[in-house]
Amino acid sequence: MSEMITADLVDLDLSADTKEAAARALAERMVAKGRVTDLDGFLADVAAREAQMPTGLDGGIGIPHCRSAHVTEPTLAFGRSADGVDFGAPDGPADLIFLIAAPAGADDAHLTILSSLARQLMNAEFTTALRSAQDAETATALIRGDARTDTASSADTGGSADTASSAADVGTQGDAGAEGTPENTAASPGAASAGAAAGSTAETETAETAATATSTAEETSTAEETATAATSAESEASASPASPASPSAARPFRIVAVTSCPTGIAHTYMAAESLENAGRDAGVEVVVETQGSAGFTRLDPAVIAAADGVIFAHDVPVRDKDRFAGKPTVDVGVKAGINRPGALISEVQEKAERGEATGGTAPTPVERSGDTAEGYGTKLRKWLMSGVSYMVPFVAAGGLLIALGFAIGGYQINKAPSVMDHFVWTQTDSWAALLFQIGGVAFGFLIPVLAGYIAYGMADRPGLVPGFVGGAIALTINAGFLGALAAGLIAGGVVMAIQKARIPAALRGIMPVVVIPLISSAIVGFLMFVVIGKPIASAQKAMTDWLNGLTGSNAILLGALLGLMMCFDLGGPVNKVAYTFATAGIAVASPSDSAMKIMAAVMAAGMVPPLAMALATTVRGKLFNRTERENGKAAWVLGASFITEGAIPFAAADPLRVIPSSMVGGAITGGLSMAFGATLRAPHGGIFVVPLIGNPFLYLIAIAAGVCVTTALVVVLKSTRRQAPGGSADDAGGATAEKRQPIAA
């Protein structure tokens, strides 16, 4: 493999004033080296990763990074800015900027190399040396570790083991550990160096260096001890509980931690390094499991059992989280692990002193991101979206099966007897009844699944049982989707309250499987049956009656509003609210005419943005770059299939023009669909369910009108941008950008 970074990939006088310009300047160097095949496509992937969470870190560091299909091999470019570039760090602009590019299918060893650099960014000596480097060759040598080879050998005379490990970590180009565990890499600098050496002489030197570094690490009590060492120490302590040499009261506080980020390349390992360093400063043993892109090695169960507390610093779900049940837990975003590790350690110590322990896991949902500073409004949105995201597949499967049943057997198929009692293999009506009845069963899960996974979003697995029980009760008492929302929120809140209670150590093991499900289900059931169930059922009926009574201008305004919501965030929370509202109306065996009109309006509006973007890239391709034109081809199919997310790449690149244009077109389509009286029994399918649409010709006219309006607005707005003086706005996404980048061809 060629070197990950060379002098040609270093710019010590980076003049960019925005993070986009900085990424482009460094990416151009990757293109020149043949490491990136499509500049605009790669930058789009970088921007998408940046949109998930800012990549600026305290200390003047920016680490834009992504995994991309446009990258041929793992590559690192480095830029140093005199004025600094804002990457969203709390302490201000970054002057050290690392652009990390990983192939979409990068192997474990490659990603381990990238993670090694990420950990080194926590080393003040490393960043200081980069700031004072006089030329690109010196900076390159520092990053690769070439310039610190002598430092590694200084461990023989009592030099810093940490510094030796740093040089080896950054410079490694060989086998850095397929498991991707930075603890092993950091604790074995000799092994890491071996990947860059060859022959038996190198192997001998590596063994000597490893032995020396290990000895030094033991003498200085470094916090980078491996999980194996921790396990051994615990085993000895367990074997001799009465030994005066190691009384349990004298041992340091022990913490196990898990770090992870969406890409799994940089923040994951930076958070681990930061927590380990803070633990060493505080006299606390911290052992970290990094769940990065290179895979992860699970902490030894004995290490977890011996731990006094747990820290989760993550932006994606922690895998096998139940291993840490019953311990004081702090659950935050990965950037909190980087920026305030000392505070997290203090917080988990305080929880341990108060006896607080989680029955399973702290608040965690599937789409969770950010730290505990989030407001209740943000948390509520995430909890509800957790339930909706699990409900939608049931809607699609059940609704399409019901629609197919109607298409094959006619609208009277809902009166067919059970296929268990009457099924004839050669009769079409029997097959239609089978599809309809399977779809009806799938629809029956909608309310329990919505309630269950709202509770899951709040309290993780312990919330599932009371959530499903509450949802099933809502279905039984005809409380509908309003009942599901209430049941899910109540179930999650009850479980969270139980988890905060002080529980004797002897009971912690049975909390997740016995105590929490029992108590929470009883409380939720009582509230749903006796207290709030009947009022909610009445409210649900009143809302249904109101919808059934909508006619004329009121119906048209409702269609326009739903169209605006469907196109506001192109598949995001607002879009899902409108979609859930529509599917709620048809989630019955015999939906009302108004409910089917609402469903038709929602699906029609949701098809507009991707179809409009596809048409715009066809009629005025020069307004879009090569990547956008390729995305436009796919958008035809996505839009026709009612996948609104097909317009997201265009909105991400130019939100101020694409999103308002889409909302106008969506509102027109929604209003026209309601005005034309189009109806739809299927919750999904796009043009493929046209036979199930009432007034299909007028329905397609409504979609075409919205698509044409959105296309016209986008073309006009983008054309106005292209005519701006200097053409700077066009450089971000137009054809001029391609002309200015001949090297990418």
What can you see in these coordinates?
The chain is 58% helix and 8% strand. The protein is an alpha/beta fold and 745 residues long. Strands 1, 2, 3, 4, 5 and 6 form a six-stranded mixed sheet that branches. Helix 16 runs antiparallel to helix 18 (446-459). The radius of gyration is 29 Å and the shape is flat.
Topology:
Elements: E1 10-14, H1 19-32, H2 39-52, E2 56-57, E3 61-62, E4 65-68, E5 75-85, E6 94-103, H3 108-120, H4 124-132, H5 136-144, H6 149-153, H7 161-171, H8 182-187, H9 189-194, H10 199-220, H11 227-239, E7 254-260, H12 267-282, E8 285-290, H13 301-306, E9 309-314, E10 329-332, H14 334-339, H15 341-354, H16 376-409, H17 428-443, H18 446-459, H19 464-476, H20 480-499, H21 511-531, H22 533-548, H23 552-568, H24 573-586, H25 593-619, H26 626-640, H27 648-653, H28 655-676, E11 679-680, E12 693-694, H29 696-722, H30 735-739
Parallel strand pairs: 1-5, 3-6, 4-6, 7-8, 7-9, 9-10
Antiparallel strand pairs: 2-3, 5-6, 11-12
Summarize the structure.
Residues 147-248, 360-373 and 724-745 have low confidence and may be disordered. It is flat and about 80 Å long. With 745 residues, the chain is of the alpha/beta class.
